[in-house]
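Section 5.1 Outputs to date
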Amino acid sequence: MLEIALILIVITSITAIQTRYLRQAVLYLGLFSMAISFVYLMYGAPDVALAEAIIGSTLSTILFIVALQKYKIYTIYYALQADELEENGQLSIHKQQLIKTLEKFCTKQELEAQIIYSTEPLEHIIAQHQYALILVEKNDVITIYAHPENYKFDSLKQFLEIEAHPRYHYEFLKVEEDIL
């Protein structure tokens, strides 16, 4: 039984480190702590096992989840061509207005907008970066690509229908795993 607990400790620790999602990592760390509590109990240290179970798996897991709930970053990549920046390195006025509209959406949703301007190709951003949205503009049509797990995408569609700038036409796409 002890060997199973030790194997579980190794598996949960590696999984917690390798996962891409913070909430899953917190859950794996809670499971890791429970396995350590069991090992302490097997070695005859019930006081340490109880302390580990209370602090490690319960209290710290709840605190991590509350902290993650309070601090939500909404990462938006704006895919630009190298020549789209003006001479002084600034974006054009209409691009800045779009960014302000997206920041307004994030504020209403209690999210912190993290805008990243990139000249990388769309496929590279999808494959290599964590994102909520990717904006690509071609001929006054803005295509908004959403991550498959983006649960705010429908709210964004509704928001942009109300707040839309008359110059823009939006196309909304959810990125699927087979797009690459």
